[in-house]
Amino acid sequence: MTLLLSAARLAVLLVIFAVAIAFGSLCLRAFRARSKDPIGQGLMACGIGFFALELAVLALNVPGWLNRASAWCVIVVAAAIGWNGWRSVRDFAVSFASEMRSQWKNGGRAAQLLLVCASAVCLLEGVVASAPLTGSDAMHYHFTVPRLQISGPLQPRFDITTSFFTGQAHLLISFGLALGSDRFALGFIYLGGLLTAVTLYVIAKEISSSKWALLAVLTFLISPMVFWQITTSGSPDIWMGFYAGIAVIAAWRALEARDSRLAILAGLLAGNAAGVKYTGWIIPIAICAYLLMSFRPRITAIWAGCAALLGGCLPLVRNAVWTNDPLFPFLTKWLNPSHLNYYVLGALRSETHPVGFSVAPLHILAFPFLLATQGQPFGLGQYFGPAILAFAPLLIVAAWKNQLARLCACVWALTFLANAVSTQMGRFLLPVFSIALALVFSGIAGAARRNWGQIVYACAATLLLFIAFSGASDLLYAKDFLPVAVGIESREAFLHRMATDYQIASFVNETLAARQKEQGGTVLVFFRHLYYLRVPFVNGDPDSSWIFDPAKCNNAAGLLQILKEQNVHWVVTSSEYQHELAGAFRELQAEGKLTPIASRSVESFTGDSRIYRQTASAEATIFRLQY
Amino acid sequence: MKDRARIEYDLVSKMSDARPKPENRILSYVLQAAFLIWIVVVNVLYYLQFKQLFFARFSSLVHR
After folding, report:
1. Hey, is the C-beta of B36 within 8 angstroms of any chain A C-beta?
2. Is A518 buried (19+), middle (13-18) or exposed (0-12) by CB count in 10 A?
3. Closest chain A residue to B32 measured between Cα atoms?
4. Which among B30, B32, B39 is the top mutation candidate for probing chain A, defined by the most A β-carbons within 10 Å of its own β-carbon?
5. What value of ipTM does the predicted structure carry?
6. 3-class SS of residue A605
7. What is the tens place of the pLDDT at every residue in A518-575?
8. A574 has which bridge partners?
9. Nearest CB to B49 within list A374, A389, A394
C-alpha cells in the first residue's frame, strides 16, 4: 500500500513535470527562443514552466489562498493554457528515450552497465526520498516556514530568522505541502536532482563524449552529497544546480547561434538559480560576465543581467519590504541598525563559516585541498568525492576550443572563488558540482584522445573506487529509511526513531492541542526541529530567534514584555532553561509566574549529525505562564 | 634518380612529422607521471580522512 501511494505521488509529479514543459514551451515560443537540441529545449522549457509555477504559488500564498483545491486549479489551468505546448513534452520524451536507446545499443557493455547502475541509483534515491521528512535544516525552516505560511496570509516569522533565507524553490515545497503531503515536496526536490543529472549529461556529452558523460552522471548521482541532498535533506538547493545547468546550456546555445533572445533567457534562468539562496547570485554574475566578454552586441549581456535580476529578485523584494534589508540580516547593520540583533547575527555567521575560516592568501590556496581531503569542517566537502581535485590537473587537456567548456570554467571558477573568500562551506558548491564534474570529465576525455592510457586507467580506477565506496555508504545510509519507505515500519515509529526532537514535539502536541484550542495563545519552545509541532508556537532559541535577543531579555520584566507581545501561554524546556535566558526565566519562576503542568522523559539525537548515532535523554517540562 | 631521391626525402620527412618529437614525448611522459602521482596522492588523502569512521563502524560490527 505504501509503495502504491508513493507510485501515485510519483505519477502526480510526472504530470506536473509534463505541464511545466508544455507551459514553458509555450512561453519560449512566445519569446521566440529556440535551441536546436530537443533535450536542451525541453530542459529550458521545464525551467521556465517551474518558474511560472512558483509565481502562481506566490500569488496564491500572499493572500493566504494556497490550499489543495487552488493547487490543483493551478495545475489544470497551466495544462489548459499550455495545450499547444504538449507536443514539446512528446519531443523531449522521444529524444531522451532515443538518446538512451542509442547509448544502450552502440555504447557496448560499459555503457549498458553504466545505464543499469545509474537507473538503480535513481530508483534507490526515489524510494528513500519517499520516506517522511527528517532532515535537520528542513525541520527547522525549509519545510517549517512554508507549512506555516500556507496556513494564512504571507507574514514574516522573526522568531525563525532563517525564514528570510527561503527562496523561490521553497515555493515548490509550499506547493507540495498544499497538494497534501510533505512527500510531494520531497518529490520535487528529488525531481530537481534528476533534472540536474540530465543537464550534466547534456553538458558533459558536448565537452567529453557520450560514455564519459554517462560515467559523470553516475558519479554525480551516487556521490554522498547528491544522494543526501535529493533524498532526505529536505533542502531545495539542488534546484540551483538545475537552473545553473540550463542557464549554461542556454548561454552556450546563444553563443553558438548568436541569438540574443537565448542569451537573455540564460540570464533569466541564472536569476532563478540565484532566487533560491543568496549565495546563488554569483551564478548570474559569472554567466553575464562571460556573455559580456564573448557575445556581440555587448548590450545583450546587460539585458541578460536585467533578466537575471527579474528572475531571482522575489526573495530580495520580500525581505526589503519586511525588514528594509534585501539580504536580511546581513546588511541590517547598515540599512536598519536600530533593529539589529547581534547575537543571532553572530550565531548565523558561525553556522555558515567553518572553524578555521580565513581569507589569508595561503589559506585560500589550500582551500581546494582542505575541501576534499579534510572536508568535515568545511561544509562537508568530502561528500563530493575526490574526482574534482584528483582530475583538476587534466583540465590542461580539456576541450578548451569548445565555447561550452570555457563558459563552464568561468562559472565554476567564479563560484568557487566567491565561496573561498566568503564562507568556505563546501555544501554551498552543490549548484555548480555538475558543471565542475562535466569540466573534469572533459579533461579525462582529452587524456584519452592523447592515448594517455595509464592516466585514463588511473581515472577509471579512482571513479570505480569512489562509486563502490559511495554506493556502499549510500546503501548503509538508506538502510534506516527503507523500512518506512516500503511500508514495513509505521510513519510514527520511524519518526520516533529518526526525526530529531520528534518526541518532544509529540509531547507538546498531545499535551497542549486541546488546551490551545480552548484558551488560544502560543507555546514558547527552544528546540531546533519545529516541523512536527502542530500547535501555534514561537521559537525562543536566542541562536535562531530574532525576537529573543539576550540583550533585551536579560531580566524578568524585559522577558515578560516580549512574552506578552508574542501571546505566549506556555513555555517548554528540555532539562534546563536556555542558558542565555536562564536568569530571567528563574526570576519569573521565583515570582510564581511559571507553573509546571506536565513533564516527560524524551530522547533525541545530539552532535553534528545523526549518522554518528549519538543520542541524549532529557526531561521535557511544560510550564503554564501567568501574567 | 632525382625524383626518387625527392620522393624518399618527402617520405622520410612525413614519417618524422608523424612521430612525436623527442622533447614532446619526454614532456608527455613527465606530465603523465606527475598526473599519476597526483591522482594517487589525492585518493590516499581522501580516504584517509574516513579512517576514524571506518574504525568506528568496524568496531561496532565486531562488538555486535
Report:
1. yes
2. exposed
3. A455
4. B39
5. 0.89
6. strand
7. 989 999 999 999 999 999 999 999 999 999 999 888 888 999 999 999 999 999 998 7
8. A576, A620
9. A374
